[in-house]
Amino acid sequence: ENNHHHVHIVFSTDCSGYQHWQSIAFWYSARIVGHQGNVTRIASGCSSAEREQIEKEWKVLNTSPNSQQKFRVHFTPSFSYNNSQQSSSSASQKKNYKYSNKPGGLLHFLRYNNN
What residues does 86 pair with on adjacent strands? Predict the structure, then answer.
């Protein structure tokens, strides 16, 4: 039995233009190699304008010939956090740790994805 359609690829991004075009390239690669399962992009911390643009483009990609509507995007809030670091002058500085979006976005997807 062919179970290839059961493989669901999930990857995490932010909403920058750089990661947006990489996501599109990834989607095309999955199509070219014949991936039959779903592909979901987890996009964390998008502004309303970024989300609207991504949704618009994904709708075009997902309804293109042979797409089989298997490319999805799941939006999450930002999970980057501020941790307090002490500088040499003992002043507290806030630093954004963007890598928390990877595990936080995946956990959000697992909890709230309905597909």
Answer: 92
